[in-house]
Amino acid sequence: GAQRFAFTAAAVRRIHRHAGGVPRLINIIAERTLLGGYAHDETLLGERWVDRAARETLPPTSRRSLSPHIAVAAIALLVLAAAALWPRSPAVTPPQAAARGNIERPVLPSPPKSKPAPAPPVLDDIQLALRMQSVDASSLPAWQHLLALWQLPADQANVRTASSCPSVLPPGVFCLRARAGIDTLSVLDRPVLLRLRNDGRDAWAVLLGTDAMNVRLRLGEDVVDVGRLALEAVWDGDYIALWHGPTSVDAERWSSLPLGTGGPSVNWVRQRLQPRYLPASDTPAVLDAQLLDAVRRFQRMHGLTTDGVVGPETLMALSAAGGDGPRLQRSLE
Known about the structure:
Blueprint: H1 9-19, H2 23-39, H3 47-57, H4 68-85, H5 95-99, E1 122-123, H6 125-134, H7 140-149, E2 173-179, H8 182-188, E3 192-198, E4 201-210, E5 214-219, E6 222-227, H9 228-232, E7 235-244, H10 251-254, H11 264-273, H12 289-301, H13 312-322
Parallel strand pairs: 1-6
Antiparallel strand pairs: 2-7, 3-4, 3-7, 4-5, 5-6
Helix pairs in contact: 1-2, 1-3, 2-3, 2-12
């Protein structure tokens, strides 16, 4: 319903600067900029909104390099450092020192530097399909890894079937099976189980990280990077996630709560929405029009259905917005 172009001319130039002219990166930055502006009721988006979107979506290596002034200063500092550290000719030992029998101290070797761990291999669609054929079709290894990330018991009895949640979870730990796109999961910022399928065979992976181009998966016993398009060819959006919340939270009950309802569950939701979506307040929390409007804006910002209903997906997103627990890796290098 917009009546004019949503970006300023400077914002368009900034999008090109961050994306380097790559169409997919342009789409990702522009989409996140629009989403942020929509959530904050902005009708015209400038450079600040583009910079914020780029920080949230692009890995550090994809962002624009240092400005010329900073680069020149950095080169100058390197030259000065090199001059200071350049080996000099050894001084001639004076006769007096030789007569006193001065002995040079041995130079101790510096401890060996630990090599950085090698980057995971990047698989294309064919390599991913072959890797899926070679791993166990059971979901148990993936479940054990996800439970370990949450520091929960990872024993086999906790998982009933390949496609279900654990049969036993500690109080305050919840499980959700749903469907979403990789961008939504990236915003939720939690490792989740992905059900992959190729030629009628299932394989289970743990989503460990995302950036603008790739996702990082634990597939079997290996960690691999996969292009987003290659992932979409074998994944229909089916995922299973864990999240923390108060024992008072009841996702089924939320869908039928009447206006004016209060209590610990409503208060927890309001705390998660403050202060970004709701002004801070010390009064008892109640389910009212203001709270529902804040829930809708939160849902829009996180790529969820904007119905104002605090269902399981919204509760998990609220928990991820301010809770503890494992997070997705953002720089896949």
